[in-house]
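Handover notes (outgoing to incoming on-call)

Open items:
1. protein-glutamate O-methyltransferase: sequence verified, structure written out, both below. Nothing else pending on this one.
2. Nothing else urgent.
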Amino acid sequence: MDFAEFKHEVHRRFGLYLDGYKEPQLKRRIDSLMSLLQVPDYAAYLRLLSQDSQQWQRFIDKITINVSEFFRNPEIFARLEKEVLPSLLARHRNLKVWSAACADGPEPYSVAILLNELAPAGRHQIDATDIDTSALAAARRGVYPSRAVQAVTPERLERYFRREGDHFYLQEKIKHMVNFRRHDLLKDPFNSGYHLILCRNVVIYFTTATQNELYRRFYQALAPGGVLFIGATESLFQYRELGFMKVAPWFYRRPEV
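protein-glutamate O-methyltransferase structure tokens:
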């Protein structure tokens, strides 16, 4: 079994679509895991994944990014707080937000904290999705190591978290603001009508064709005037061709009708 056949079988058996990933990086990650497990070939590895749920989870963890941190790139989140969200809230009392590929939850929870401060009376909808069910389970627990909260201000740390030893427990009110569910960006349909979509430091792992298709689908998922927020490691060079207006570095707006 060659690598192309392996990807096809993973999709057929598990529903995980791998063709959109950049192949050299994906193959390198999978080969390194097989080497660590001393699995001789792709056929044997496929059998192992079919028989051992722990190895399947390890496989998912290897090919996805399942950890994050609150207010990652604080200077960029400051622009979200001071410019982008106030602009959206000036037009919409209640915001509909999607954090795509949210990992273990710090990103959507960061947005929830901001909305709790900027528009506490609003009935906001914050959807957060990821392909990794174990990461989503961790997100729902809302318990984080100190590394994940290193960019949180002391005031917010005291207001929104309870510290127990080396772990920080997020306030229940903020946890209840976010709806987590499993979603595969490469195969599942997108909802629509979002005022803000965050998809940060994930698209870089996909092929150029897949990136463009995702950005096109994000555009369609945004409400007119809605904003796409991408990662600091990413660039949307074709934003005009896709229909976006550049609001600021890493922020792209779907024009109003």
